[in-house]
Amino acid sequence: MTQETLESQTIATSSESESVKKMLLILSKATLDNVYACFILANGARMEGIQAEIFFTFFGLEAITKKKMEKLHIATVGNPAMHIPTMLGGLPGMEAMATKMMKSEMEKLDMPQVGEFLDILSASGAKLWACKLAMEMFHLQESDLYDDIDGVLTVGGFYERAQGRGTHLLFI
Amino acid sequence: MDKQLAGSDVSVDAEGYLTDMSQWTRSVAEEIAKEEGIAMTEQHWKVVEFIQESFRNKEPLSIRSLGKRGPVSIKEFYELFPDGPLKKASKIAGIPKPASCI
Questions:
Q1: Is B101 an annotated catalytic residue?
Q2: What is the C-alpha separation between A124 and B63, in angstroms, rounded?
Q3: Do A110 and B75 touch (CB under 8 A)?
Q4: Distance (Å) of CA A115 to CA A35, A71, A96, A121, B19
Q5: Which terminal residue of chain A has fewer beta carbons within 10 Å of its beta carbon, N or C?
């Protein structure tokens, strides 16, 4: 057996016994599909007894910006999964229509709107952090943001929260 | 798979969920709760009863529906059944493992 396979076996064995303790999710986009993917992963973690924290950065900040969070859209341009020609996706009203359709499907599955989802996450003990640099870039004050965020963090502050075994980071 | 709980034989699946709800009793529930590290209080029983009622009525169970219609808030639910509230409460309530993602 070569040294390499021996090493990979050791890694496999040690990671098997290491369960996920904490999920740190970085949300950098504000299209509805990305926001929901992030929220469902965070909420799902809490449901499994795993700690969850979300760092809202760049456009991801819109998901916790009071004036924007209920007005998020899905992208109809540059999204091959829409299965419509890109030119059509750019027509007025297309994004709104696609978003409306997606929201009604989600409601059927008992999926909450963004604001209510944030309430559920907050009540579940998930931590919500706003990115300091992105706030400065978009000229946002804490009062512009969802009331129950846990605070504003620098990147360094966020990484400090990544300490401990079984912590995983995910960029969305 | 059979298991002895509170002096009676009950059938459970590989993860310890009752496979026959008719075998559920309060003493069985208390034993399961103890295994999960939970001491049952009046609040716990209210949640368990709500979950059983939803299951009988074939209503989909999720954290959201519990928060909306249930006897406690989502925050209290997490405090009562820490580390996986929906799963733990379902196990104690004697219903199958919930398959909800939200």
A1: yes
A2: 9
A3: no
A4: 12, 11, 19, 10, 38
A5: N
Q: What is the pLDDT of residues A131-156, one digit of tens each?
A: 999 999 999 999 999 999 999 999 99
Q: How many domains does chain A have?
A: 1
**H or E element in which residue A47 lies:** helix A32-47
Query: Hey, is B18 helix, strand or coil?
Result: strand
The b-or-e profile of A8-36 (16+ CB within 10 A means b, else e) is: eeeeeeeeeeeeeebbbbbbbbbbbbbbb
ipTM > 0.90, yes or no: no
Query: For residue A3, is it within any domain?
Result: no
Q: Encoding tokens for residue B71?
A: 């006897």
Q: Which residues of A touch B75 (CB under 8 A)?
A: 123-125
Q: Return the CATH number at A48.
A: 3.40.1260.10
Does the global pTM surpass 0.90? no
Query: Does some domain include residue A71?
Result: yes
Whether residue A166 lies within 8 A of chain B, CB to CB, comes out as: no
The domain segmentation of chain B, as residue ranges, is 2-93
Answer whether residue A72 is part of any domain.
yes
